[in-house]
Amino acid sequence: MASGGGSNLGAILDACRSGRISAEVVVVISDKAAARALTRASDVGIPALPIPPEAGETRESHGERLLAALGPFDADLVVLAGYMRILSTAFVQRLSGRMVNIHPSLLPRHKGLHTHRRALEAGEPEHGCTVHYVTPELDGGPAVLQAKVPVLPGDDETALAARVLAREHVIYPKVIGWIAAGRLRCPDGVPMLDGRPLTAPLIDDGSLA
Ligand code: GAR
Fold first, then answer.
1. Number of helices followed by number of strands (H, E) in the chain
2. Whose CA is nearest to atom 16 of ligand 1?
3. Which of 128, 159, 179, 209 has the most CB atoms lying inside 10 A of its own CB?
4. CATH class of 1-95
């Protein structure tokens, strides 16, 4: 599910196509009819469904429509890749342990929006991104993998966001690959990688296979 440019979707599609991960994208859903993510999918023959909220529609009923749309595809995993709309609690609970998100900060720092700006304003020496399982607490689900980037002198939001995004394109397919291979699960709210609980997120330093 994506709202915008879909560069993370592109990275995931590349990883699937090249065989680096053993997974298949079966459908792409967007809340924005004009999202580039939808054309990225339809261009390669993947069903692309625009499902924007309707006027006056509650978050709950939008969530029900999303579940109904997903149903026929029988997806094992829902991947939020720049999906910028808060999902209903019922939607999140229905997909408990089967939905992941990527967030452009080193969670728990900078939940929510404008993460790059806030990292710059706070004068932080490093910033990054986090892949986590989704729970009803916004950006609060258990984290699996993070990548760090330095904040460099002269950085603005655009430069910092681009540096982080490049790392997103590496860590998101990696985590999806772990899940597809049966190496990563999240029973009872605790991620388990290769049979071991992750009590803190792993940091991708290039050595993780
Ligand atoms: C990414 O930076 C992703 O981390 C962020 O939106 C961007 C989407 O880029 N997601 C969030 O902020 C979610 N709260 P993309 O459309 O090019 O993949």
1. 6, 10
2. 6
3. 128
4. alpha beta
Tokens for 209, please give them: 């296979």
Pocket test for ligand 1, best of 8, 110, 132, 172 (most atoms within 8 A of CB): 8
pTM assigned to the model: 0.98
**Strand residues in 25-156 grouped as ranges (E):** 28-30, 48-50, 78-80, 99-103, 126-133, 143-150
Pull the structure tokens for residue 2.
Answer: 């994506």
pLDDT digits (tens, 9 = 90+) for 126-158: 999 999 999 999 999 999 999 999 999 999 999
Q: What's the DSSP call for residue 6?
A: -
Question: Which residues lie with the beta carbon below 6 Å from any ligand 1 atom?
Answer: 2, 4-8, 81-82, 84, 102-104, 129, 165, 168
CATH C-level class of 102-209: alpha beta
Q: Can you tell me which atom of ligand 1 is nearest the CA of 112? A: 14
pLDDT at 206: 84
The beta strand positions in the chain, using DSSP E, are 28-30, 48-50, 78-80, 99-103, 126-133, 143-150, 184-185, 192-193, 196-197, 202-203
Residue 62 is among the residues annotated as catalytic for this protein? no
Would you say the CATH fold of 102-209 matches that of 1-95? yes
Ligand 1 centre to CA of 42 (Å) is: 20
